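Appendix B, Record 12. Input sequence as logged:
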Amino acid sequence: MSSTQSLVALMKAELKSQGLSYAELAEALDLSESSVKRMLAPGGEMPLSRVDEVCRVLKLDFAELAARLAAQAPELRVLSLEQEKAVVASPVLLLIAICCLSHWALEDVLSRYRIAEAEAVAALAQLDRLGVIELRPHNRYKLKVAKTLRWRPQGPVMTFFRERVMADFFAGGFDGEGELLTLVHGEFGAGHARELAERLQRAADDFARQHLLDQKLPSAEKRPYSVVIGLRSWVFEAFRDLERPGLGLTKTPNGRSR
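Logged structural output:
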């Protein structure tokens, strides 16, 4: 995320924390609400003079806003092996970690799941010690990792996913409203594969952004969705067995194809 985008994101977070709507900001700036939405949208333009005006509405000076921006630590995209081991060691800790990645408040977790408040708070404290979140007063927290966190390919979390989650996920019909399952096979150069992987990562980022945008919707209007994105050099095992020697994928010492 660029510095400008980060500054706008910080302003939007401050608006939310102060309970100010776009309509109220628009009125204070003598602009239309649609103009404010365009200004704060990804890729929107905000001149420095407008930044000062928004700061005035927020009762902040630009120096304070810039200091907050500078203090923001870069988000982690990958956890260490030790962090992943700790997260999957307890079902409750894993659940709380996933809820934190989805920006759930503690109250939301307790209303959905049969977990004692003390147990949930203890899990938040452990995630704070692990460096996944920064625990704040009143059991609020700030994520220190990206929502599109990439789990280690052969790490503890992905092992848990393969053994306990994958079959359950793909057992669905994928024929509900807004659901999709597609498998596409092709052959292309390694450079193009890397470009495609980057585009797929952006799709995951879009999914995460939409989740954040829809947090304002009432619970009755939301449904839980999950997306799994995978890209690898692979041929179905039954097809590999029919390939002529020397023409197909080779196998690594651990039995995986490449």
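Residues 234 and 258 are 7 Å apart (CA to CA).
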